[in-house]
Here is the input.
Amino acid sequence: MNAKTLEPVSLAVDEAAIQRYARITGDYNPIHVDPAFAANTEMGGVIAHGTMSLNLIWQALEKTLGSAVLPSVELEIRFRRPVRPGDVIEGGGVLDADGTSYSVWARNQRGENVIEGTARLDGTAKPVPLSPG
Amino acid sequence: MTDKVMLFADFVPGVLLAEVDDHISAEQLAEWAQLYPWDKASEGFVPTSLATVLLMRSYHKAIPHRPPGNIHAGQKMQFLSSIRPGETVTTIVVCQAAERKGERRKLELGVVGRGEDGRTVYTGLITLFWAA
Here is the structure.
């Protein structure tokens, strides 16, 4: 029997965390790490890397279901809103009615979903189509 | 890989963009532990969600010159096998789909990462709206 809800995992996002994530990923896009540059974009300021919040969903899945189950989980998500320094992001989810998937999210302190998606528990890896040349 | 900025018109579905070797270093593991101190790995492996980093770095390395303003819209992933610290993961990055949706240029990049012994460690599909 799968848990009805995922055990939540949360992260307080600040500029130091964003800089740390940039060092891990090598992604120094100025929208993430340069406040002066970011202020003059349509975002109006620095935003966190999207996958920094996405990782919280994976961690909530692993915390709840255990590492052994993760290889059968196929996660599909959409990024909905930017995450900014000062946000507190929580990854979580709820079991769908058919019991074979979780509706998952990463949500900010205002209750807004910054990421939404589905974690299917019977995922099967599909080959990536590749044509010669 | 190319030295010039990859434009939407350069993408051909089904064509391999790059094969990228990468690994998780001890320094990156230490940074990860600082950022996500609760994210513990099984003995001898890196935390599972760290595979997201390898997956995204493979995209960045495959297409190092990207037009400014691209939007990372979504992602599909499956993590199939644990990765050891320092293990070389070889990821192929393939243009899986390129289609215009109104004013938007939608790209789907397929990725498959394999460990040193050839086992598949992850698969993924990165959805992007390409800026130019």
